[in-house]
Each structure stands twice: as C-alpha cells, then as structure tokens.
Amino acid sequence: QVQVVESGGGVVQPGRSLRLSCVASGFTFSGFGMHWVRQAPGKGLEWVAATSFHGSDQYYADSLKGRFTISRDNSKNTLYLQMNSLRAEDTAIYYCGRDRVWLRDYKYHDLDVWGQGTTVTVSS
Amino acid sequence: QSALTQPASVSGSPGQSITISCTGTNSDIGHYNYVSWYQQRPGKAPKLIIYDVNNRPSGISNRFSGSKSGNTASLTISGLQAEDEADYYCSSYTSVSTVVFGGGTKVTVL
Questions:
Q1: Helix (H) or strand (E) holding A102
Q2: Closest-approach residue (CA) in chain B for A111
Q3: What is the pLDDT of residues A13-54, one digit of tens each?
Q4: Which residues numbered 6-35 in B keep a CB inside 8 Å of some CB on A?
Q5: Does position A65 have pLDDT exceeding 80, yes or no?
Q6: A33 with B93: CB under 8 angstroms?
Q7: Is B91's CB within 8 Å of A109's CB?
Q8: Given an 8 Å threshold on Cβ–Cβ distance, is A45 in contact with B38?
Q9: Which residues of chain B fall below pLDDT 50?
C-alpha cells in the first residue's frame, strides 16, 4: 500500500544536529513533491519544508531557513531532513508527507499521504 | 508568515451542521485557490479532507465541504457524527512559495 515511514528521531542536546529519513513505498516516489511538517507537543501543525519531485527545488519556512535542509534520493525512495543547531523549540513530532499531484513542478501545497511521524526531543 | 486564524473550538449536536472559519491575508488565502483542510484524531497523523478550496479526495464523505470568500475559507461538516470529533486544520499556499497552517480547531460532538 501507499505509505511513508519516518525515522531518525530521538533525544538530542541543544546545538547538535540530527538527520531524519522518510522511506516511501507503494508509489513512484520520483514523481511527487514531498514535505516535512512538524507538531510541537500539544500544539498545531507547522509546515517545515518541501522539495520538488526532481529534488532541484527546495522551499522552507522562513523561521527555519538556514538551519534545516530538505533533500531526497530518488534511487532510494527516501526523503531527508537535516537539522542543525537544534533548539528546545524544535522539539516536535516530524511528519513526512507526499504532495498530492503527480509531476507537479510548482506551488507544492497539499499533502495526501502522511507518515506516523518521528519524535525529536531537544534537551540537555 | 503568520499562521492562519481559526477558532479554537466548535461544537455541535449529532445531525447538526457546523462551520469552521480560517482567515488569512491577500498573500495566501486571498491570492490562491490552494486552501486545504486536514482532520487529525488524537495520536494520529493528519488526513487530507479538502483540497483546492472545495474538492474532496477519494473516500472522503460528502458531509465535508469547503468554500472561500476573500481572505476567509470555511469548512462545513453537515450531519455531524461522533466520529467527526477531532482537530481540524486549514492550510494555504503563500506568495513566498511556502505553506501556512491555521492554529487548529477542536470539534466536539455534544
């Protein structure tokens, strides 16, 4: 079945780095844009970043630009989120999601497949 | 980019209709017909229920409908059922090529 599965979360000290992964299956990964969305404990959804289906274009929430990097390896059906200089406020569940439209090359904006999330806790 | 504005909570009795509003700006909701709505049950991942203002993905009940006027989008749930109790989030594409979510609305079925 169509699914994405996140991994790589854990407890990390402030200022350190972490890389999240998201493995896709059941669909042609290379044909869809992909997103990361996070949710702090007890809070709402916050969009983090998106990448085009070919991986050439990346888009970031202004508040995160410069610290987080989204990338993908279409040969491995895997999406990544490199997170640097982590802060306590980055503590959240991080969801990977598929952009809804096949071969959409612009205006990535809706997620029709979501993973169950991976939890990142930034704490000393 | 500031979050879209949603009411914190909305409630209704079974069978009733409720509407959740989502207010943005001329740079997001007012500029594009790219408003989505998501349902999130406790401990679960969000689920897309409306895309591009008023379209339902396959398998989503026609009791869910969306609309937009100016800078405000709305989600209406008709024939409210116990299973509709969840958090609902709106989102929109923005003029700086990002996505912005609303703060979320908790729907309670009385």
A1: none
A2: B48
A3: 999 999 999 999 999 999 999 999 999 999 999 999 999 999
A4: 32, 34
A5: no
A6: no
A7: yes
A8: yes
A9: none
